[in-house]
Amino acid sequence: MTTLAIVVLLFVLMLCGIPLAFALLTAGVAGLYTVGGASMVLGILKTTPLSAANTYELLTIPMFMLMAEFVILSGIADNLFRAATVWVGRFPGGLGVATAMAGAAFGAISGSSTASAATLSATTLPSMLRAGYPPHIASGAVAISGTLAMLIPPSVAIVLYGLIANQNIGELLIAGILPGLLVAFTIAATVVIVVLASGTKPTTQRYSIRDKFAALKVVGPMVALFLMVTGVIYLGVATPTEAASLGAAGAMLLAWRAGKLTWQGLRHALTRAANTTCMIMLIIMCASVFAYFFTLTGLTQDLVAWIGALGISRWLVLLLILAIYIVLGCFLDQISVLILTIPITLPVVMALGFNPIWFGILVIVTAELGMVTPPVGLNVFVVARYSGMPAAQVFIGIWPHILAHIVAIAILLIWPEIILWLPTTMGN
Amino acid sequence: MGTLLRTVGRLATGIERGMSGISALTIFLIMVLVVADVAMRYAFNNPIKWSYPVISRYLMLYVFFFAVADTLRRNQHVIVGFLVGAMGIRGRSLVELVAYLPSILIFALVLGLGIGLVWSQFVHNDVVMDSLGWPSWIATLALPIGIGMLLVRIVLRVTALAARAVDPAADVAAAYGDPAEGDARIEGHE
């Protein structure tokens, strides 16, 4: 009964408009006080702030954020769409395919899906509209392509899952590569089908072989950055934290080489990285306090025992959990979803015999849906804001992609090797 | 009252910006240090041995605690409040105010415990690492400074909310924080 009251208190506080971290801290302290009294509260408040901030792996997040800022500053992301267009622009729906390719490429050098959606909005949307794509199809393709950055390394969301679930961050990042390519292919195929089914005939353009090879030049810096981060993690040359720092430094050099690194830009990038890191660290710190209360109540163990006693198929339980993630994603942002649910769902999933890395990637792919589903699909609002379109129009263009995304999740459920194979080939 | 609130709000903003600048600079320093460590390891087989403990025990604390108040001022924390978004200014201010109140007590406790910890480490000459022998209190000091400033910002925000609940047109931007400096909906959700 106490547990239920504290969980209700948490949700009430969240809905009151205070930061999620404050809601977690207040509810956690109230819960600890009811379970263990003032001495327990004081003991945990004395140790948790320092221990939460002392986590070395957390450094991966500011470095990935910094890398994303420098990548945007350098302007190399702007050229990715142009390069993809030269190769696939002549096919029906080619610009939509190029958008998915640019989304995947941007995802390979940035871990922020909102930054990806914003960049793609500025570069791909005007071209698609000029070529005659219906606005809802064009904006839907951009919004969903932006989510690829959550999955393809470097990914802030995957690092956060690794920290909460206490799993190997390097393996998780590498595990995201093949599902990321699968989702990119799904987006591209969906755009082509939707364009053909709509009966519209966007203009296409042919390019010479020379143009095609010239376009590859802009891909060079992107490939270099990708190898500098994901390559060194895969080969076991550096830890994810070191790789993230190398990526940030590499992206800064690219911005400097492009002549776009100003003092103001550098200050802006560093401040944003500091603020985002602080936001995530405060949530982790306050969630730790709440987690102490949860551990003391033994709720998670009770839940695992209860599900075991039900005698239902473990696959049904997993499907129910993923369905809950889709519903939660409609109302909560991805950080809240991961922080609030992983400490509960992961022990259940592991007790059922599922692999935590496989589950983590499934959760991230499912969380991608939350970035584009109403009412709080953040990428939709980013695209609407940058394009000046009504958000409702972007939401209309998203529906085919949501259905296709569910098919992609089903494929990952049926063939876990798509997620789990690549980490097994990693260097030590 | 209004003038005093504005003045204190602006003063706090200035301090928060300065601390946030130190936090940002520390991130840059960490990046340089990690890259140098990797380069030294592979180029000269001579890694910077002290980089790991210095980063995790000292620098990360300053990155976090020195940006914590400024992050709240810029409204860059994850906020779910779509329910209060539908309420009027007066109702929303009252609901937020009540929800923030327990945080004041809790962060005051964290501040008190942090000061006690720094003092204890200072008096007992505690060291973080045996190899370097650096004092622990220099690292822990970031906690009371950062949480103290966060507490000031929360108290200012609660005062601003109270003023807005009485008079919805009250100019309390400096005390509440300035969302215009960063769009929470975009930047706070990655």
Describe this entry's structure for a reader:
The complex is a heterodimer of chains A (428) and B (190). Chain A is mainly alpha-helical. Chain A is built from 22 helices and no strands. The longest helix of chain A is centred in the middle third of the chain and has 35 residues. The radius of gyration of chain A is 22 Å and the shape is globular. The mean pLDDT of chain A is 89. In chain B, α1 packs antiparallel against α6 and α4 runs antiparallel to α6. Chain B has 190 residues and is mostly helical. Chain B is built from 8 helices and no strands. Chain B is elongated, with a radius of gyration of 20 Å. The C terminus of chain B is likely disordered. At the A-B interface, α1, α2, α3, α6 and α14 of A face α1, α2, α3, α4 and α8 of B.
Indicate the radius of gyration of chain A in whole angstroms: 22 Å
Structural class of chain A: mainly alpha
Structural class of chain B: mainly alpha
Straight-line distance between termini of chain A: 48 Å
Percentage of residues in helical conformation of chain B: over 70%
| Count of alpha and pi helical runs of chain A | 22
**Mean pLDDT score of chain A:** 89
Largest sheet of chain A: none
Question: Which pair of protein chains has the largest interface, and what are the residue counts?
Answer: A-B, 74 and 65 residues
**Percentage of residues in DSSP E strands of chain A:** under 5%
How many DSSP H or I helices of chain B? 8
* Residue share in helix of chain A: over 70%
